[in-house]
Amino acid sequence: MVIVTVMVIVTMMVIVTVMIVSDARRLSDLDWFRSSYGDVLQTVRVVASEQTRKARGWVYTPEVDDAVSECGLDQGVSFDWIIPNDGDDDSLQQQLDKLTDFIYGQLNLSKG
Asked: Where are the bilayer-spanning segments (predicted)?
């Protein structure tokens, strides 16, 4: 399932719509967005090591965690942004700040 959230940024009487897809799981999902949105699309993958995931309580479940919906994008797929999520909240926030700075820059907006 793909969940879509729409954020509307209003600044200086200009309305800009940014669509964030929070859960694309299959190559066909990415292919559709790439063909529909072309060059304006930015793909983001958040990654954490198996060790980190286990420390956070994840337990491997056969036939669930090895299903295409869970690992179909793990190899052979390029992303515009890879955000590591193995550290603390500050490290993650620094990575997210880079992404949001890029988005604002592409929209010719300033964060304020």
From this structure: 6-24
Q: Cα separation of 92 and 46, whole Å?
A: 10
The structural domain count of the chain equals 1
Question: Is residue 69 in a domain?
Answer: yes
- Residue recorded with tokens 């820059």: 105
Instruction: Give yes or no for a contact between 72 and 25, defined as CB atoms under 8 angstroms apart.
Output: yes
**Which residues have a Cβ under 8 Å from the Cβ of 27 and sit 6 or more positions away?**
72, 73, 77
Q: List the domain range (segments joined by +) for residue 60.
A: 4-106
Residues 98, 99, 100, CA angle at the centre, nearest 5°? 95
Q: Taking the model in full, what pTM does it have?
A: 0.79
d(CA 28, CA 25): 9
